[in-house]
Structure formats: C-alpha cells, structure tokens
Amino acid sequence: MTHLPEVVTEEKMAEAANEAELLKEKANKYFKEKDYENAIKFYSEALDLNPSNAIYYSNRSLAYLRTECYGYALADATKALEVDKNYIKGYYRRATSNMALGKFKAALKDYETVVRVRPNDKDAKMKYQECNKIVKQKAFERAIASDETKKSVVDSLDIESMTIEDDYAGPKLEDGKVTVGFMTDMMEWFKEQKKLHRKCAYQILVQVKDVLSKLPSLVEVTLKETDQLTICGDTHGQFYDLLNIFKLNGLPSDANPYLFNGDFVDRGSFSLEVILTLFGFKLLYPDNFHLLRGNHETDNMNQMYGFEGEVKAKYTAQMFQLFSEVFQWLPLAQCINSKVLVMHGGLFSEDGVTLDDIRKIDRNRQPPDSGPMCDLLWSDPQPQNGRSVSKRGVSCQFGPDVTERFLEQNKLDYIIRSHEVKAEGYEVTHSGKCITVFSAPNYCDQMGNKGAYIHLRGSDLKPEFHQFTAVPHPNVKPMAYANTLMQLGMM
Amino acid sequence: MASRQPFTDTDTADEAVRATCDDATVCKRFATSKGYWKDPYIQYFVRSVGERKAPEINRGYYARVQGVNRLLDAFLKKTQCDCQIINLGAGLDTTFWRLKDDNLMPRKFFEVDFPTIVARKIHYIKTKPPLSKPIIETHSTDSLLLDAHSLDSDRYCIIGADLRNISDMEEKLKKFQLNTDSGGPRTAAYLLPTLVLTECVLVYMSPSQSSGLIRWAAETFHTAMFINYEQVNMYDRFGQVMIENLQRRQCTLAGVETCQSLELQKERFLRSGWEHANALDMIAVYSMLPQEDVGRIERLEFLDELELLQQLLQHYSISWASKEKLSLGIIWLF
C-alpha cells in the first residue's frame, strides 16, 4: 500500500511541532518515573509528528539504553546527529551506545569531538579521559612491549591467611604442594560437580604462573627412543571428555607424558575443572606435562565465550584476573627432537620466520592484532598454495608451499596444530606436513565430531592417531550463554 | 470443555514443545538487543535481555527472520495486501506489529497456538499499550472481543487451539471470519489469497498429522501459499545429537522423518494438494540475503568457529508451496 503525499502547510507544520513538544514532555515525565516503555512510546509519537527533531531521537536513545536495546540506542543517536550534527548530546548518546556495545574506539572519537567543541566542559573531559583509559588498556594489551610495572594480582593476594573452613570436605594441597593423591581427589571432586576451595585454586595459580614464566616461548623437548608423547588438541571445557582421555590413555605421569595444545577453556560448561586439572598436572610433572597457549587463552575470547563468566560466577573477578596473567605466560610453541613443531594455530603471514624468532617472542601479553605471536595462535592451513585472508578476520591462511618452505628453512619434518574442529578428530594435510588434532568430541554438544589424540614415539616420530567419541556429562549450561544445542529447537 | 485429565506423557511432551516458544523469544530478544535486526516489540514479551547467546545462534536467527520476512513481504506485495495470513504455532511472534509499522498489513492476521501460550500472549497484549494500541487503532469499534483464549479485532485475531485437531481449529478460525473456499462463487470478492506460516511447528507432530494440516490448507483455501521453516538434513550425526539433546528435555521431534532432505520438504506439499513447491537450506538463504547487511551483522560479534554456523545453517530450511497462480520463484530473495 503506498502513501499518498500530503499537502503540508506551514501552519500545519507548526501545529504538528507543538503537539510533538507536548508528547515529548509527556515522554520526559515517564522517563523520570523510570517508565521507559511509555517514554519510548511517546518519543516515537513525537517523532511521527516531527521527524526532524534531534532531541527526540537523543532522548529516545537514552530510553533505549536503559532497556538494554543498545542497537536501537545507537541508531537513534546516529539519527539525531544526522538531523543536527552540532547537537552535542547526540555525540554523548552515540558514545554511550558504542561503549555498551564494547566499541570503545568509536566511542572515543565522539568524546573527542565533544571535547574539541567544548574545551572548557569538565564533564566532557572526564568522560573522554575515562573512555581513553579503557581504549588505552585495550591497546596496551595489544602493545609491542609488555609493561614491566603492571601490578600482578599475586602481589595483592594473601593466600597464607586464607582459611579453609572445617566443613570443606574437598581436596587440599599437601604442605602447599600438588600430589598424586590431591590430583586424584580433585578430579573426583570435580566429577561430582563440586567446587575446589578458592585457597587451593589460588595456590595452584600462583605456583603455575611461576613455573610457566620460567619457560621459553619455544619449549624444546627430547623424546628418547623408548619415550612416547601424547599430544591433545582443543579441549574447550569438556571436562568429562578429558577424564575419558585419561581413562583411555592413562593418567599423566613422568612415564606417560602429555602435551595439550591450547584452547582449554571457553564454550564448554566445565572450563574451570579442565584448566585446574591441567595446571595441577603441570605442577606435578613439570618436565613431562606440557601446555601451549591457544587463541582462547586470551581476554577477548574469555569474555565472549564463557570462561570469564564462569570464573566470576564460581569464584571472583580477581581470580579471573590471575588466570589472565597466567595464560599470558603459556609458551607459544614446542619443538620435539628438533623435528616436529607444535603450535595451536599455525604458520606465519610472512616467509622467513625462524625457530629463533619464535624463541625471542615476548609473550607475556595479550596477542597483538598481527605478527608472529598472533599467527601462532590464529592461522589456519589451506589446500591451495600461497596465503589468503583468513576466514576468521585475523591472521591468515597458509598453503602447502608455505609449510614446505618453513619446514625446510628450520630443518623440521612437519607441524602439528589444532584450532579447527574436524569430524574425525584429526586431519592430515599438506602431504603429511601439516597435521590437525582436535580433542573436544561432539563439540558444543552439537557437532557430533570425534575427538583424537596423537601418539608420538621417540623412535620414529611418526604420528599415530587415536580417536574417541563423546561421553555423557551433567546437564549444565555453559557459563555466560545457553548451551548451543538446547536452543536448537530454534523454535 | 473436556473434564480434567490426569497428567499424561503427551502432556509432558506438549509442555516441552511449548517451552521451545520461550527459547525462540529469548534468543530473538538477545539478538535484537545486539542490533542484528530491529524488533521494538519483543521486549514487551520478554523484558530482560538475559544471558548471552553464542554468536552462531544470533546469526542463525538473523537468517531465519530475514528469510521468512522476505517471503512474507513478497506475498503481501504480490497480493497488494488484499489477503489473509495465518501463523500456526505463532508463539510470541511480533510480525503483526512489524507489518502494521511497515504499512503492510493483510486484511486480517490470524495466530493460532496452544491455549496456554495464547493466554499468555493475550495477557501481554492487554497490559502493554505498545502492543494493544496498534490493534485497537485498526479496530472499528472501541472494544475488542476478548476472552481467556482468544482475542479478535478487525485486523488481528489470536486463538487457542490444538493444531492436531484440525476441525476444532477451523471452526474457531471461521468464527472469527477466516475466509475459506467453502464451495461458493470463486471470485476475487469471495476468495482471499491466503498465506499459512509455520515456523518450527510441523516437526513436533507426526508426519501424518502434519500432512493432514498441509492438506487442510490446500483444500480450504483456493489461492494460497504455505511457508514452512524447520529442520532439514536430519539423518546425520548432527541430527542425531539434536534429537538426543531434545529428548533429554522430554521434547520429541515426532515429525523428523519429513526433515530428512530438501526433497522431502518439497514433496510433502506436492503430494498434499499443492501445485508448486521450493525448498532451500539456510546456507543458501544466508548467501542470498543482501550481503551488505550480512556484512554488518557479521561485524557485530566475532565468531570463533565458522563450522558451528555452517553446520547450523545446513540443518535448517525454508520451504514454500503455492497453488493457483501464486507461484513465487526464488526471485523473492533478491
């Protein structure tokens, strides 16, 4: 149905404008009473009568912010500025909307504009500075140099004076140390969905931070003829599947070494249980239990995909801060017998990167947007030669020729990486020079994929693949978002 | 009204099906709050934005909503709104309000769902002026016809009924002026083009029950279109996992047989009285949506594992069927 254009006189317009003002007053009243529904309703009516009024858009934007409709708030703020690019409040509204949506750089631009136009406005300056702080913090996390003077959570913790209540029946460290008994008890405790006392969690974190910080960014291990290393890929908070790996392949020990190739947390419902178990084994067998960093051992991913939410819910924000610090010390790659290189993501956006370059990476930070550290955590192999823009929007995709050149230059045989779910749990590509291993079966309770792990013997360094399927787990929603498949009634 | 029956297994099953209505509403609420698409009315059905949903879920809902809306709007434009729309199993859907805002209202918009869901929806409508006002505005008198399980107005009607009891449902719809081909003169004045819409509804009833409903639609309306959104390609690992997961919630996909393939989704219409049928999986639909807007929504949230979205989209489909010169080719997507 088409709208016939109305003949509008100036008188009619003035009439409409007046009525619109009355409606706006009404809306303002509702806003003051926190009745945002009605406020929005009447602002909308005012806009129907007078669609070129920036104030109405701006006010409605604020009402939308209060009802968490950030997308609308942003749209209205933008509209307000379209109508009147000198309307200062419009910039504020748009900045606030962008902040709510986590788009701090965009917000900063608008605060900057306000400060420029109103150099004497203290409030504008304050808002700009606050936003700038957040942007800088985030930029810091991407900065080239790590800040040595950044305070660690460890400094403000007094673990000694944390007391464990008498009625806590769970596992405790023995003389402040992780033992085999402690690990067995803790895994059983977790299996029954019980919580480890925060003192024990802090003890583990502080100790493992210390251990990891002493490792180089490229860890070198030697497997003797008779040694066998088990390499696992992403586990993503799937604790019960981790227990199954230990059941199928034996518990970790000095005689049964393991390497877990990143992405221990996020998406799965039991990320805390997984990471505390892995950290516990790292402390128990530091030379024979290896952990590498994945792209999910970062603040951005943890915030979006559940780990931060889980830690905050089960413990505190401070503990998440400590996890974040510990993750920053995870090594980025491991070289086995100078022949096999393992990393979570893959190879590099540029040719010419050497093992020495990896060794020299200053890794105690959030990964930058690009560069070798970013590539190690984010890149993916592709079937065709050359490099392409990554489907992920970060790092790159690298072809068999890139792998070939890298291996040759560094005198390696092949690489093992993870990072991508595979139906069979593993995939061999680039003529056997690039292997993917993924150890989270039925990923997100949805994919139906198998998990796999690799046996690597010191005698021949040929990968032997072992597959396994998912085991049942308690019906717990992953933190911060509802279980994917539970939504899949999509209905 | 039947006497109170003891709580049976089917009651549990039905209750589980009704619960999926909340899943959808809550997911749409979250996605719209993040800016995936505009729906100013959904907040009146669920106030709080709630827990974060995974990005692939948000993108999946975006594709569904955009896809179904484009088909719907194409039908309305082709019939110049001189038509009626029946949303079966509508839940807390806000389409009527969107159509009113967009000036695309059919002559009358009907919604049918379980009585308990309808009662809830009527309660929200009654108590939220942004919902009731558009209905009252389009009604000729001052008062609406309202009872516990039905609301009727000139342009909008919602009734509580069981879709598996077709004669009862038809009776109720006719009571509120549903236009049907009842054997009278077959002229434009008497026969309104009709659109029947089901979104994740047929899969919850047995294949014979759903084909009964599809056949009823073909026989009751002379010039008509049927749009169906639901699962497809279900006979693989993903499908198995979904079935198991939903079983754990006592929710049975009784109609999963017809969700085996796109062919079957088309065929179920062709053998139940419909002349033309098309079916597309959501990967195809997603790729055909205006890519500028798709680009915009993809920038809203970072998706860490594209496989999850691909797999999701592969297992949902939109199919549409038509009779009597109402055929809409794939052109509706462009």
UniProtKB/TrEMBL annotation, chain A:
Q: Where is the active site?
A: 296 (proton donor/acceptor)
Q: Which UniProt keywords apply?
A: Acetylation, Cell membrane, Coiled coil, Cytoplasm, Hydrolase, Magnesium, Manganese, Membrane, Metal-binding, Nucleus, Protein phosphatase, Repeat, TPR repeat
In its UniProt entry, what is this protein called? Serine/threonine-protein phosphatase
One GO CC annotation: cytoplasm
PANTHER family to which the protein is assigned, alphabetical: SERINE/THREONINE-PROTEIN PHOSPHATASE 5-RELATED (PTHR45668), SERINE_THREONINE-PROTEIN PHOSPHATASE 5 (PTHR45668:SF5)
| Residue span(s) of domain Serine/threonine specific protein phosphatases | 292-297
Q: Name one Pfam family in it.
A: Metallophos
Catalyses which reaction?
O-phospho-L-threonyl-[protein] + H2O = L-threonyl-[protein] + phosphate; O-phospho-L-seryl-[protein] + H2O = L-seryl-[protein] + phosphate
Q: Where in the cell is it found?
A: Cell membrane; Cytoplasm; Nucleus
Q: Name one GO molecular function term.
A: protein serine/threonine phosphatase activity
Keyword check for Cytoplasm, yes or no: yes
> Is this entry keyworded Acetylation?
yes
Write down the superkingdom of origin. Eukaryota
Question: Per the UniProt record, which EC number(s) apply here?
Answer: 3.1.3.16
Recorded coiled-coil stretches: 6-33
Q: Lineage of the source organism?
A: Eukaryota, Metazoa, Chordata, Craniata, Vertebrata
Please report the residue spans annotated as repeat (TPR).
Answer: 20-53, 88-121
**Cofactor(s) for this UniProt protein:** Mn(2+); Mg(2+)
* Family, as annotated: Belongs to the PPP phosphatase family. PP-5 (PP-T) subfamily.
Which coarse location class describes where this protein primarily resides?
A: membrane
Organism, as annotated = Oryzias melastigma
UniProtKB/TrEMBL annotation, chain B:
Write down any Gene Ontology CC term.
Answer: cytosol
Q: What class of enzyme is it?
A: transferase
Q: Name one GO biological process term.
A: methylation
> By its UniProt entry, which InterPro entries does this protein fall under?
LCMT1, Ppm1/Ppm2/Tcmp, SAM-dependent_MTases_sf
One matching Pfam family, short form? Answer: LCM
Question: What are the entry keywords?
Answer: Methyltransferase, S-adenosyl-L-methionine, Transferase
Residues the record lists as binding S-adenosyl-L-methionine = 64, 89, 162-163, 199
Q: Which residues form a coiled coil?
A: none
EC number assigned by the record: 2.1.1.233
Regarding protein family, the annotation reads: Belongs to the methyltransferase superfamily. LCMT family.
This molecule's function is given as: Methylates the carboxyl group of the C-terminal leucine residue of protein phosphatase 2A catalytic subunits to form alpha-leucine ester residues.
Recorded protein name is Leucine carboxyl methyltransferase 1
What's the source species for this entry? Oryzias melastigma
